[in-house]
Structure formats: structure tokens, C-alpha cells
Specification:
The chain has helices at residues 17-42, 48-59, 62-72, 76-97, 104-122, 133-153, 167-193, 197-202, 270-274, 307-314, 337-341, and strands at residues 255-260, 266-269, 279-286, 297-306, 322-327, 332-336, 348-353, 356-357, 367-369, 383-389, 412-417, 422-424, 427-436, 442-449, 455-456, 458-459, 469-477, 480-490, 512-518. The chain is an alpha+beta fold. Helix 1 runs antiparallel to helix 6 (133-153), helix 2 crosses helix 5 (104-122) and helix 5 packs antiparallel against helix 6 (133-153). The longest helix is centred in the middle third of the chain and has 27 residues, at 167-193. The termini are far apart. The ligand Nc1nc2c(c(=O)[nH]1)N[C@H]1C(S)=C(S)[C@@H](COP(=O)(O)O)O[C@H]1N2 binds next to loops. It comes from Amycolatopsis balhimycina DSM 5908.
């Protein structure tokens, strides 16, 4: 008689699909949770997930980044995070899949993923060596959890009498890992964001300018007729930056160093700046990636100090070509030194915006504002260093990605009302919008229906040559589909070209138009 009963119990040879999937996902959760926990103490942006996402932003082709800014606006970062999460989950699933017999392939994948996190932190110049602890801990946690769960689910040797896969034990371990990862992530999140800039900002108190901006005339805008409001409320102000996590700098920890080709290196604290006589200046900021008709332009009353006064204290040397600014998150910006130094330009180190301390996402504690230059060559937020140097000694963030060195804002105009493809009633139709030519000023805005005559629009009061100017006009629109065009002329006598140019490398050109469907 054959003795079937005498044969040793068969060890399970292969994990089921749900079990291998769960192992991959739990190892991922453990790695991210532990990484986030450690990052909470050694530097929030060292969290592997954030570090990898930042790396993706900094190393994506410039066309893609600028496309994302234009089409997704402020949603660009949530979309990126979601995309990265999807990739990670797929990775975890594959790791589980490939490990249904032995853990080897999954371990290799987990290791590679962990190594990517380590590399993403390693290349950051704004994080110290200890920051590496976060991705290293994540790597180790991922490997340990993967190996441990795999061993429970698929023991290497069957113990006589063992049933092989102990479902209870596996579930207990899995729940433990999931709960532990969640708690770790939450603790890391709280620790990492508790040194929040928001309470420091709330403690700043009122910023009282010694020199206030002249009061706004009643006709500074035609908001009632459909133009933008002259002053953009802070929550509506466009926001563009590469920071995945908004830098949290407390005013009391902030310093600005002016160095390089200067006679004396100088450093200012927040108290040094805010106790100087503050000036108030209305400036319209514009992003170079703004398409014709786009929304990346806003206007505020900034409060701060004259940048030239600080620069004079340092004594910028004659040969300096660029003011190379660095933000606390490592972003950099190059401004022509002669523009920064020109007293007539009115460059500011701003600490306030529309009567409040700078909002954190607009650069708290301090940023640069320079009328007439696109933001990427002038408007450094969370600024911590201004180095005077030659153009070829340092290359700023967007320059190395194909954007121009010199980028004065181009004269442009936009139709805000009616919106494109709006249905209107044939007859008299009112159009309203805005025009800008910062540091030169708008002299004239004209509107034309189809190929008709250009007609001059009514302009709002000129508040300053550094701010936008609103316009409105009434047109006779016959029944049918028509196109309305706008063009502006600045105080230098330059009239906007019809030629369409892309934002790359130094700003879009062309006439904005809307299609009107008159019934
Ligand atoms: N630190 C930092 N400052 C930055 C940027 C950035 O990515 N990082 N982007 C610049 C660009 S491209 C623009 S258009 C302006 C936008 O300023 P805002 O977000 O306050 O509107 O900030 C500039 N300052
Ligand atoms: Mo920009």
C-alpha cells in the first residue's frame, strides 16, 4: 500500500494574487509612512514622496512644466502628486506580482524605489546630510516589511503539521503594518508642519508705511463694466512657483544676505527690514508663461523697502552684471544688475501685500518685486540671498531651461468681457478689459470688429506706469458670428504686434480676440 498519509505536508508553492498584491502595497505604505515620519524631524521636504515629486518638477522638460502651469494653473501640483501616487501603486503591484514564488524580485524593486528616494534627497542643495535619514529609513522599512510579510505568507520550509499559509497571522501582521504606517505618516506630518509660518505671520502686526501710495482714483477700474478690479485681492492673486510644499519660513528665522561683487557683505533680519521706513508701491506682476488672453497677471499694493537702499549699504561693484537671487527652496533668478540698481525703477524688497504681511504662498517673510520684468527674472519669493556676479558665472533656474536672460514685460491687452463664444444680443455690445506695459505705461487701447476700423476705447485713470490700465468700449455688432480684437499702444509709441509668438523664450505676443455670437 502506498502511504499517502506519510508524505510530509506540501508547503504552498505560490502566493495567491490578493496576498502578493497586499504585500506590495503594505511595503509601499510602510516605506512612505516611515519616510514621512523621519522627514517630520529632519526636514519636511526630505519625505521621499515629496522629494521625488520635486525632482520630477525640476527635471521635466520645460515645455511640459510651462504647459502644466498654463493649463492646470494651481492644480499642477495636486495633479503631479496624484500621478506619482498612481505610478508608485503600480510599482507595488508589480513587486507583489513578481514575488509570488520567492521574494527576490520584489525586494529588488522595493530597493530600487527606495534608492530613487535617497537619490532625490541627495541631489537637493537646500537639505543637509541628516535629511538623508528620511529616505534611508523609508528604504529599510519597505524592505523589512516586504520580507517579513512574504515570510509569513510563504514560509520557506513547511513545519510538519503546519497548514502552510496562516491566514490569521498574516492578517494580523498586515493590519499592524497598515496602522503603524498611518500613524507614522500623521506624526511626521504634524511634526514637519508645526513650525508653521502662519503663526509667525500672524504675529507680525500692522505694517505702517512711512510713504503711502497716493489714494486710488474712483475710475482706476471699470469693474462694474466687466474689467478686472484694479487691486487683485490676495486670495485671487495668481500664483506661480516650483515649490511643491510652500516654504515655511518664520520671520524670526529669516535672513537676507547680499554678497558677491560688493564692497561689504551685509545681512538683514526681518526686524532690520520692518523697522526701516516702509514704502508702498502698486505693481502689476506678470508671468512670462501667460498666453495671449491668459490669467497670469495680477496687481497689488506692495509694502516694503527700496531695494537700492539695501544694495547701497553693500556697495555693489561696477563689474557686476546680474543680481542672482536664491530662494530658501533653492529656486534661483537672475536680474540685470543695472535694473535692480536703478533708483527710478523702484525695485522693492516687499514684506507686505494689500495691507497684510505677505501671504505665505506669495513669499513670506520677504520677496523681491521689480516693476516691468516678468516674474521669473525678478520676483523671487522666500528670498534669502542676493549675489552680485557675472552672467556666465551663474545660471538661474529658468535660464538653464531655455528661457531668455533679458525679459522685460511686453505690451499686451486682454478682453475680459464678454468671454469668448459668448452669446450677445445684436446691437450695442459693451466690451471691457485690461492692458499693460509695466514701467512704460499704456497710452491707448483700440478695439476692432472683424476687419473693421480700429476704434479707441475709454481708458481708466493712469494710476502708475507700473500698473495695468482698464478700458471699455461699446461696439455695434450686427447679427451673426464676429470676432473682436484688442491692441494696446504704450507711452513709447509701440503698438502691439499682430504676430503670434509663444511664451517661450521671452513672452507671448499677438492680439487677443473673442468670438461673439450675436442674435
Ligand atoms: N522662490 C520662487 N520664487 C518665484 C518663483 C518660484 O518658482 N520660486 N516663480 C517666479 C515666477 S515665474 C513668477 S511669475 C512669480 C509669481 O509670483 P506670485 O506667485 O506671487 O504671483 O514669482 C516668481 N518667484
Ligand atoms: Mo512666471
Amino acid at each position: 500500500m502506498s502511504t499517502l498519509q506519510d508524505a510530509p505536508p506540501e508547503a504552498p508553492k505560490r502566493l495567491s494574487l490578493p496576498v502578493s498584491t497586499l504585500i506590495g502595497l503594505l511595503a509601499l505604505a510602510a516605506a512612505l509612512g516611515v519616510g514621512h515620519l523621519v522627514a517630520g524631524f529632519v526636514g519636511y521636504t526630505a519625505s521621499p514622496f515629496i522629494a521625488v515629486a520635486n525632482y520630477v518638477i525640476d527635471h521635466s522638460p520645460t515645455g511640459i512644466v510651462k504647459w502644466a502651469e498654463r493649463t492646470l494653473g494651481t492644480w499642477d501640483k495636486p495633479v503631479l502628486k496624484l500621478g506619482l501616487a498612481v505610478v508608485l501603486v503600480l510599482f507595488a503591484l508589480v513587486a507583489g506580482q513578481l514575488s509570488r514564488r520567492t521574494p527576490r524580485a520584489g525586494q529588488v524593486l522595493v530597493f530600487l524605489l527606495g534608492a530613487a528616494g535617497v537619490a532625490a534627497v541627495f541631489v537637493r542643495t537646500d537639505l543637509g546630510q541628516v535629511a538623508l535619514l528620511a529616505p534611508v529609513a523609508a528604504l529599510v522599512a519597505g524592505l523589512v516589511v516586504f520580507t517579513f510579510l512574504h515570510r509569513i505568507a510563504l514560509p520557506a520550509e513547511a513545519v510538519p503539521g503546519d497548514q502552510g499559509f496562516d491566514r490569521r497571522k498574516f492578517l494580523r501582521a498586515g493590519v499592524g503594518v497598515a496602522a503603524g504606517s498611518g500613524v507614522a505618516a500623521v506624526v511626521g506630518q504634524v511634526a514637519g508642519t508645526s513650525a508653521n509660518a502662519e503663526d509667525s505671520r500672524a504675529a507680525v502686526g500692522p505694517l505702517v508705511p512711512a510713504r503711502t501710495a497716493p489714494p486710488l482714483p474712483a475710475d482706476a477700474d471699470f469693474a462694474k463694466l466687466g474689467s478686472p478690479a484694479f487691486i487683485t485681492p490676495n486670495p485671487d492673486f495668481y500664483r506661480i512657483d516650483t515649490a511643491l510644499v510652500v516654504p515655511q519660513i518664520r520671520a524670526e528665522d529669516w535672513r537676507l544676505k547680499i554678497h558677491g561683487m560688493v564692497d561689504r557683505e551685509v545681512t538683514f533680519s526681518y526686524a532690520d527690514i520692518r523697522t526701516r521706513p516702509l514704502v508702498e508701491r502698486r505693481v502689476t506682476l506678470t508671468c512670462v508663461s501667460n498666453e495671449v488672453g491668459g490669467p497670469l497677471i495680477s496687481n497689488a499694493t506692495f509694502i516694503g523697502v527700496d531695494l537700492v537702499d539695501l544694495l547701497d549699504q553693500a556697495g555693489v561693484q561696477a563689474g557686476a552684471e546680474q543680481m542672482f537671487a536664491t530662494s530658501t527652496d533653492g529656486w534661483t533668478c537672475g536680474t540685470p544688475a543695472n535694473v535692480a540698481l536703478d533708483p527710478a525703477r523702484g525695485a522693492m524688497l516687499a514684506i507686505g501685500m494689500n495691507g497684510e504681511p505677505l501671504p505665505v504662498e506669495h513669499g513670506f517673510p520677504a520677496r523681491i518685486v521689480i516693476p516691468g520684468l516678468y516674474g521669473y527674472v525678478s520676483a523671487t519669493k522666500w528670498v534669502e540671498s542676493l549675489e552680485f556676479t557675472k552672467w556666465d558665472a551663474r545660471q538661474a533656474y529658468w535660464l538653464s531651461r531655455g528661457w531668455a536672460e533679458q525679459a522685460p514685460i511686453k505690451t499686451e491687452s486682454r478682453i475680459d468681457t464678454p468671454k469668448g463664444f459668448a452669446g450677445v444680443t445684436a446691437g450695442k455690445v459693451r466690451l471691457a478689459g485690461t492692458a499693460w506695459a509695466q514701467h512704460t505705461g499704456i497710452a491707448k487701447v483700440e478695439v476692432r470688429l472683424d476687419k473693421g476700423e480700429w476704434r479707441e476705447a475709454t481708458l481708466s485713470a493712469e494710476v502708475s506706469k507700473d500698473t495695468w490700465r482698464m478700458w471699455w468700449i461699446e461696439l455695434d455688432v450686427p447679427k451673426g458670428t464676429h470676432q473682436a480684437f484688442v491692441r494696446a499702444t504704450d507711452h513709447d509709441g509701440y503698438t502691439q504686434t499682430e504676430n503670434r509668438a509663444d511664451p517661450v523664450p521671452d513672452g507671448a505676443t499677438g492680439w487677443h480676440s473673442v468670438t461673439l455670437d450675436a442674435r
